[in-house]
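thought: fold this chain, then report.
action: predict
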Amino acid sequence: MSRLSEKYGSKVSAKEAKAIQKAMDEQKENRNKFKEVPAGEYKVVVDKLELGETSWGDPQITLWFKITDGEFKNSRIFYNGSFDDHFEHGINSTAILLADLLDDEELTSAQIAVILGKFEEDQTVVSDFLADAAEAMEELAYDLDYTITKSKKTNKKGQPYINKSYEILDVYDV
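observation:
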């Protein structure tokens, strides 16, 4: 018996472990049942909007679009927008997408880019804005044009880079 097992094993009842193991087994079984969502036009709602972090530590916005109709109903399309404009989904592209999602004629993508750009000096402003934006998006649905293209450039493994684009075609009240 390992030292960790000795120390922590007795803190978990057999009943608790069995229940968790069952859930984990179901999760493993369902892991590969999700279909990759191909490029196309989809009716969606925003399922999640949150402030996150890139793998290299820069702030980013994470959006989850939930498909509400058709063959891929309940599937998700994911968007990660960095606050670094060296990438296709940088701060300006993210601001444009957020402006389209909010569908507010008085709030421009340029204003949103400025708000997001304030992250270094005041993270609360960005967090509060995103919370308010997420709340506003709960009342809206969208037609999303989701495009996937493969780059001619390849990564270190010889695989082509995948470029995804997101365009809001129409906005509806829920």
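thought: worth noting. The beta strands are 40-53, 59-67, 76-82, 140-154, 160-173.
final: tokens above.
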